[in-house]
Amino acid sequence: MSIADAPAIAALNPPRRVLLGPGPSPVDDRVLRSMAAPLVGHLDPIFVRTMDEVQELLRYVFETNNRLTMPISGTGSAGMEAAVANLLEPGEEIVICINGYFGERMHEMALRVGAKPVRVECEWGGPVDLEKTRKAWRDSNAKVLFAVHAETSTGVLQSLEPLREIADERDGFLMVDAVTSIGAHSIGIDRNRIDACYAGTQKALSCPPGLAPVTFSDRAVAKIKARTTPVGSWYLDTNLLTAYWADASGGTGGGARAYHHTAPISMNYALHEALRIVAEEGLEARAKRHQRNHQALVAGVEAMGLAMAVAPEHRLWTLNAVSIPEGVDDMKVRSRLLNEFNIEVGGGLGIFKGKVWRVGLMGAGSTENNVLLLLGALEKCLKDEGYKPKDSGVSAAAAFYAAN
Ligand SMILES: Cc1ncc(COP(=O)(O)O)c(C=O)c1O
Q1: Nearest to 303 by CA among 401, 392, 363
Q2: How confident is the model at residue 254 (pLDDT cuts 50, 70, 90)?
Q3: For residue 379, what are the domain limits?
Q4: Which of 101, 102, 201 to mutate to test the pocket of ligand 1 (most atoms within 8 A of CB)?
């Protein structure tokens, strides 16, 4: 074939998977349809109104009145980079709690923006060690404390109040990763006085990956404005992004907008629709649904004699880490789930590789149907692998649903 020959590539025809991994999660057809809507320009009044509404809806899910609340163009990692690149100046210390893979990623990003990260090493599969964190905070000159609210690598939910208390010892800034909690677990930005928070669209918001909602408190914005060095990343500089996203009138709608970059129009349509779905259900009802399906899954998993990797009081509802029983082949089971049952579940990350399955019950994926389907399929795969389930997982989950 010469380079001038046009390649004959068939049209894509991806299957409709049951996405029960660590993300992306299943997306409502309403969201998919919204992405097929006609494009308008990134400064078209219709798009400007879309931006205002996306911001209003994001404030609702973040539970905040923060004016600087917007989606960064990029995946969750772009939100992560935006938070650390804006809030920290080169040479500045930051205390980073590391109890999983994403704390480690933040450490790497902090190094790359020239900050001086102070690591708080915590056990994977457990919450942040508060005594170690307090000591690291007291021993450092850091103004920023970072933790992951929902550690997707381990399935641990971190309570934020004690971290706020530690940061308050010297009026510190609290920075939080809410990629896997947004839209399922309450984040309570204003209630918990979180100063910088980033999230992702592809988990419990049930929107395709591609945008990273972020929010910054007024005092975080003041810190950013008082920087003595420019933000290292032009693309992620909130001072520049504000001219495009945060409307100049200070309220909703009507303000002037300046071009910064060409916003991914269709992704914003998708987020707009996904957030409308969240608002229709309501945050509280959505949290209850996630909790109930998580509990049913746990009832099923434990009935089969399998163990959850995280203690009950620290478990996420969105990401369930199930310990792989001795003698069972991780990859074989996951391949069979995918190829025979069309179900995706995730494998372990970092030190949990080969040790856990990560079962996501996120957004539109958190349903009774999906829990029962997965438990049935898993039971079959496990039996074929020679593992003898103690009891029926499906029956235990069905009994849980009947009683709750
Ligand atoms: C807790 C957490 N933080 C950050 C990220 C990075 O997001 P992305 O993969 O969308 O860039 C992820 C992705 O799974 C995550 O789970």
Answers
A1: 392
A2: low
A3: 283-403
A4: 102
